[in-house]
Amino acid sequence: MAGPRYSIIPGDFASEPRADIAHFRVLCEIGRHTDKSGWCRIKQVKIGEKIGFTRETVNRKIKDLVAWGYVEKRSNDTTGRAIWYRTVMDRGEPPTMDETDDAREHSPKAARAPQDFDGHVSGRSHVGCNSKSPITSGMTATDHIRCGRTRSHYNDPSLTPLSNDPPHPPAKRRGRGRGKVDEVVSALREVAAEKPNDEVRRFAIERVLRPLATQRRLDAPSLVGALNCLADWISAQDLSSDEARMLVDKVLAERRATVKPADVTDAVKLAISSRPRRRQIEGDPGLMCHWPEVLAALEKRLGKVRAQQSFSTFVIDRIDEPQGTGRVIARVSTHLDGALRHVELSLTSQFRAAFCAVFPDVTDIDFSIRKPAYE
Known about the structure:
single chain, mainly alpha, Arc Repressor Mutant, subunit A, GMP Synthetase, Chain A, domain 3, 3 domains, three-stranded antiparallel beta sheet, three-stranded mixed beta sheet, 42% helix
């Protein structure tokens, strides 16, 4: 069954200067459940659930509405709790616990409505209900000074002082708010302006420091000083785009609120340490000039990082054509026994396909270990 589509409330409440939105919503919710005599039986908890306020807030609003003369309440249960409410329209008397709507409609008491009601709620029109004294101004924020703010006060609009002054811009702070982002952007701009023609330094600022400093708080006494030192140090490491991306992803993946300069330098050092080892033996110069083509074919199959790490120490020594065999054998060597075992165990077919794409006449590949000349 659909709920009520309208609410019966006093019309002069619209011009009530003491009311806030919470008073209005509480009064409307009571007015939605009134019966033919204007009364409703509803718990404050239920009212709060309907309109999104705590029970304590609803209780304060009802006290205000009763004190101002817009709501009547009657206590009918054994605890003396007020469970019957009525928006004041000067119609009928409050029901008892067992009275039905029809019984109250035909009751002589239901016809006892004052004839001089002029549509405005006043102390006189409220006589006979629960206001024995003149209508008061209700509760204000000052009434809650002694009790202190609790969680039940947080969604009460009347307890938040309003001001006609224009809002002040938030102070810049070293947090995760707008002020922090503005401060970081300004510091990065200042650092970049010191050496505007240094492309390597600009790369370090834009690809490493900017994503880290704007997404995490840089924990340093001087933001500009720390960024300057980091930019100079990182630019001297000659990072690649892939290394910059990986170290930024690593730092951000740790999900820490702050990042120290030492954390950034540690991530850079880790990226440098994972670089492929430099080749320590030499191959045939005429054949090695085609090695970048072989490596590019490997990167398509394995990815750039894995191809570099797995084959960076390999060289092409020679390509033989033994007479009478009809075979063309490529002699490939490395100085690292572990690298050779790794390739022979899992990457032989990928290397063969990449090598034959550059040297299509090769039928066999022979891997071997060769010591560096200086050993």
